[in-house]
Amino acid sequence: MCGAQVKPLPEGVCRVAAVLQALGAEHAPVLLDEAARTAQQAADALDVALGQIAKSIVFRRQPDDAAVLVITSGDRRVDEAKVAPLVCAPGQSLARADAAFVKTATGFSIGGVAPLAHTRAPVTLIDAELWRFDVIWAAAGHPHAVFRLTPAQLRAWTGAPVADVTVR
To answer: What is the sign of the dihedral through the CA atoms of 125, 39, 141 and 133?
Structure first.
């Protein structure tokens, strides 16, 4: 490949790849040609069901500013009223996190928030709806990067509880 320029992997993808390797994961991150900032874009790029995309929704817990990561099935919408009692003490509440908070709290930009390899460990919940699928795909630290795993691996690797967190 004479004359071709090799681009280094983005830092977030390298962090995710290193954690996956340390965990003994079978599948390394995959770089997609097109951005997969949304669950629909990821599903289209991978030719999988929308629900197989493990999307990461980040909330900001008030007043302690803790990041709360909800990993949910791509075809579901998180119900904040179900999440709050699971992660908030009396007097605390949840708010949607803006892009600056997400980047600072997780080390990833919106559209590439992985379920692991965060710069600071968030409070994490996993949507029970992901267990409808044998194989799921999650962001790998960049809007063009994803990795393959199972719901059981997601639970084991994050240590997060599984809960009913979506709108019905």
So the answer is: positive
